[in-house]
Each structure stands twice: as structure tokens, then as C-alpha cells.
Amino acid sequence: MAADGKTSIWWNGKLVPFADAKTHVLSHGLHYGSGVFEGIRAYRTPKGIAIFRLKEHVERLFFSAKAYKIPMTLPFETVFQGCREVVKANALDECYLRPLVFLGHGQLGVYPKNVPTETIVAAYPWGAYLGPDAIEKGIRATVSSWQRLHDAAFPCSAKGAGQYLNSTLAVREAREKGFEEAILLDRNGNVSEGSGENVFVVKNGRIATPGLDSSILEGITRDSVFQIAKELGYTVEVRNIVRAELYGADELFFTGTAAEVTPIREVDTYVIGAGVRGPITTKIQAAYFRAVHGEDASKAAWLTLV
Ligand code: PMP
Asked: Between β-strands 270-271 and 260-267, what pairing exists: parallel, antiparallel or unpaired?
């Protein structure tokens, strides 16, 4: 599901009706991918709708803008409150939030000169990213023929709009081959991440995930899983992971705001473990859903009520 056409959109500090939230076709961001964005979820909790790890997402948005030297024209607090406002004003239940900061209409040319910064936040209902069965049954992924973009070419830990052409190529190829998602390798042939998710490998009770040197986006869900896994008594090794470790894993799962914690039951027709959601994935997933839904008091700091 995409933006639903009903909700108003927060634009540079004001709410604009959905139909009026338009930009010029000569916007810099449209031509050169010069934008940075976030994906955030809000969940139902006993105290009302709450946004998960909002502060960390807005911090990453500001970091991404800095990495690409896109001048932020609104203070942190305004963007932070804008996220709350758009959910509240649209009386949304559980939803997905999409903040985007892009270079707008001014002068064209690769060097951004005389172009305004535009900041928007959209919010709309969005269910399970990889399909309704994905969370319970897991998905089928394929190792992409496209390599993950590399830190020598892009600041990979920034969420730059243009970077997502790499993700789009990979996920398109995966879907055309009949898989739900792609896993990209880094420039050295090690496992990097999914087109929009980090990946975790479980083998003999040990959990591992690639580090920043594998060109990953440092996921906020990944960070949440580090804490959850630790509390469940597991350590997560951050290290290089070779392709064959995917095929030989007992369990594999993706993490991401959109994908949440999604088991991977098959990679390139290799069945992972028993081909069903594994026990460690199940435990981590359950703890994650308790946290996002405000059922774990120790994680209250991760939630911002709207
Ligand atoms: N990698 C990529 C390429 C992504 O787009 C995302 C989604 N933002 C992630 C990883 C997971 O990050 P997060 O858990 O912060 O959503």
C-alpha cells in the first residue's frame, strides 16, 4: 500500500491537503536524487498511538542531510514535532511515516545552487511490508546480481534518495525471479543487506550481522534487536558474513522499520533450517512486537506518544 490520498501532508511546518502537496518537475531532487528520507512506524499502545524511536530516526535524517550537504532549514524540534502532528492531525491509527528533505525548484545543474530545501512528512496506513504471511511464515530471498553501493562512492550510512536506485534494481530483479526480496553483497563479496532491511544470521545458537564495513545502512531496528537479543541472553557478533553462511544458516531474518522482524525461510532455493520461522527469530520477533506496542515497560523510552 502507498500513500492513501486521504491524509494531509506536513510541508515546511504546515499541513497541506494531499492533492495540493505537489512540487515542480524541475526540482533538483527529481533530477539528481538529491534528497534524504526516513521510514518510521507508529503503533497502537495501551497509552495511545506512539511513534517508535522517533528521536533516532530524526537524528539519522539530520545526519543524512549533513552527509549530502543539504542545508536543513528547520530545527530538529520542528521536524520531530511535525512527525507527531501529521499523525495526530490525520487521526491515524497504526501507520507509516515518511519524512523527506529534498532540494526543490530553483536552478538545475548538478552543483546545487539557488535551490530551496523542502521538508515534508507524510503518514499513511501501511501493513506488513513483505506481505501478510511474511511475519509468521517467512519469505524467500535471492542473492542479487547487483552489488550494494559502496562507501567509496556513497555515504552508505546515510539514507539518500538517489541511493535507492541500487535497492530498486535489486528488488525488481528479485521479484522478476519470483522471490520476495533481494540480499545484496558488498564490494568484497560479503553479505551486506536487503534492499531495505538489515540481515541477521543464526547458527548454533549464535547470532551475527554485517558491520558498517559491509556498506550497510545502520538500521534502527537492527540496533533495537541488539538490545533485545542481549536481554534474551544472546550476543550479536558484528562481523563479515560470507555468502555460504546464508545457505548454511539455522535461521535468517531481516530487520527494518517496514519489514519489522521478518524470517527468511529460503535463499536461492536453499531451505533455511527447517524452512519455517526459527525459535530464536520467534523470540526476538515477539520481544520486538511487545516493545513497539508498549507492552515492555523497560522500552518506554523508545516510544513517543502522538
Ligand atoms: N537497509 C536499508 C537499505 C534500508 O532502506 C533500511 C530501512 N530504513 C534498513 C536497512 C533498515 O533500517 P531501519 O531499521 O532503521 O528501518
From this structure: antiparallel
